[in-house]
Write a structure and sequence with these properties.
By secondary structure, the chain is an all-alpha fold. Helix content is 82%, strand content 0%. The protein has 21 helices and no strands. Helix 3 packs antiparallel against helix 10. The longest helix has 42 residues.
């Protein structure tokens, strides 16, 4: 047993795992419910479509840019302390979201919520890694992934019920009791583990704020340009924002090499397995996020489903992950992550192809269910082995930073994939609208948002979304190929 796991008594481990699951549940439920409440927010607060986009994107931007800093804080200030602080900040920001009286206030509260999540989320995996010996870690991470997947899947269903019965604000109020239970368990049964010691002032001073700022500017500029281009065109503002974003991202490695305490430590970035696992995270989570973004357009805009039906339609995805992730984590411990992640990437590719080539006029069971189900099986096979590969690749004392980097990669992938694939779908719609109107003799707005708002051109919406599914299939195929860079069996990690 390693020294870190020895610091957590065996009787405390189930409680520690429960606390991390509660924290992850808050974040995952929030992420899955937010898209459902946006129409009600627009009605209640008079928010524009651009404002609604920023309700989602400002959270992702704060989370993806600061999550590595949050992971490093846990290593240096103490994981239990930082974890509890993140949970409290997330809960307070959730209450502010629920009380917001304007779109601007809601966006500001969502930004703070993203900061809280950036502090809270990376501690979950780091705490599990520190609390369980390596031979039991895959099973624990698999159980965490199963519980997280179930809460994520039930989130839209529960959220739909809450929104329909109590209004959109109730989707944020629900975080308060979850946070209270999480903090109580944390203070009661979670031991404190800190890898680095020193004065708090020095620790805060040494954090890589320049690297975090570069990520904010880079991801913010690039995503804004991708979102704005389909509606505004390639204007000077869009070009400048995109170039600034790309320049900031390109400068990030240079900044990191010169940082006193880089958010991505050289010992991690020099590890071939760690880099390969994060590339796979980018491809798979980027593809998944884009599919989840496209499905409501397909189901609501293209097929006439309601928001409640969209939530229910995703149940097979989360149920399969919930049922199978713990088993796949144990298999990954035994046989290594290479084959499970390769198979998972291939299955995800096939799932996207099933969605892309499903009957546009078919019902849920023939057009949507096969792809959604196979997608759930794909991630059930590969999530736990891939996450375990990331956490095992770095030195024991850097588990917080490793978790932070991996979470930043997955959230950054979501931000860029949603913006990029959304831009492709929007362009596909706009370029096809005149031909569709001539061929079908029906009114066809020139902009995708116009068709969605007016309930028109459903067939063209479905055809445009197909293009996005195909892009996601390419990401899955790239992931299946890149998975060959992972270890094939348990043993010494290459690249340390």
């Amino acid at each position: 047993m390693n020294d870190l796991a020895a610091a957590c008594p065996r009787d405390d481990r189930p409680w520690v795992l429960t606390a991390t699951i509660l924290a992850s549940a808050m974040a995952f439920i929030d992420g899955s419910v937010t898209p459902i409440i946006l129409p009600r927010v627009a009605e209640d607060l008079g928010a524009s479509f651009a404002a609604l986009q920023w309700v989602t994107n400002i959270y992702l931007l704060a989370l993806s840019a600061l999550i590595v800093v949050g992971g490093s804080l846990g290593d240096r200030l103490g994981r239990r302390r930082v974890f509890a602080a993140g949970v409290v900040l997330f809960a307070v920001a959730s209450i502010a979201c629920a009380a917001a009286m304007s779109a601007e206030a809601l966006i500001a509260a969502r930004a703070v919520q993203g900061v809280g999540a950036a502090v809270m989320i990376p501690q979950s995996l780091a705490i599990i890694t520190a609390s369980y010996p390596k031979e039991e870690r895959g099973g624990a991470i698999g159980f965490w992934a199963s519980a997280s997947a179930l809460t994520t899947t039930l989130g839209p269903v529960i959220g739909g019920l809450l929104v329909d019965s109590l209004g959109w604000r109730s989707a944020f109020w629900i975080n308060a009791p979850l946070a209270a239970a999480c903090v109580a368990i944390t203070l009661w049964r979670m031991p404190e583990i800190r890898q680095e010691r020193g004065a708090a002032v020095r620790i805060w001073r040494d954090l890589d704020w320049a690297g975090a700022a570069a990520l904010v500017i880079g991801l913010g500029g690039a995503s804004w340009a991708l979102i704005a281009a389909p509606e505004q065109g390639v204007t000077v503002e869009v070009l400048v924002a995109g170039l600034i974003g790309l320049a900031a991202l390109a400068l990030t490695p240079w900044i990191e090499r010169r940082a006193r305490q880089p958010i991505a430590p050289p010992a991690l970035m020099a590890n071939r397995v760690f880099l390969a696992a994060n590339l796979l995270t980018f491809l798979l989570y980027g593809g998944l996020s884009a599919v989840m973004f496209l499905l409501p357009f397909d189901l609501i805009g293209g097929r006439g489903y309601g928001a409640w039906e969209v939530g229910v339609s995703m149940l097979p995805f989360g149920v399969l992950i919930g049922l199978l992730s713990r088993l796949s984590g144990r298999l990954g411990d035994r046989f290594g992550p290479r084959d499970p992640v390769t198979v998972g990437g291939a299955m995800f590719t096939l799932a996207c192809l099933l969605l892309a080539f499903g009957d546009p006029e078919g019902g849920y069971w023939t057009a949507i269910f096969p792809g959604v189900t196979l997608m759930g099986a794909a991630f059930a096979v590969c999530i736990a082995p891939l996450t375990t590969a990331v956490m095992n690749a770095g030195p024991e004392g850097m588990s917080g930073a490793a978790s932070g980097v991996n979470n930043a990669v997955s959230r950054g992938a979501a931000l860029l994939a949603v913006a990029g694939v959304g831009a492709i779908v929007s362009y596909a719609y706009s370029s096809s609208a005149p031909f569709w109107e001539n061929m079908h003799g029906e009114e066809t707005p020139n902009v995708l948002q116009g068709a969605l708002a007016q309930g028109l051109a459903q067939g063209l919406i479905t055809e445009s979304v197909r293009v996005g599914y195909l892009v996601c299939a390419v990401l899955g195929l790239m992931a299946a190929a890149a998975a060959r860079g992972l270890p094939g069996r348990p043993g010494p990690v290459v690249g340390r």
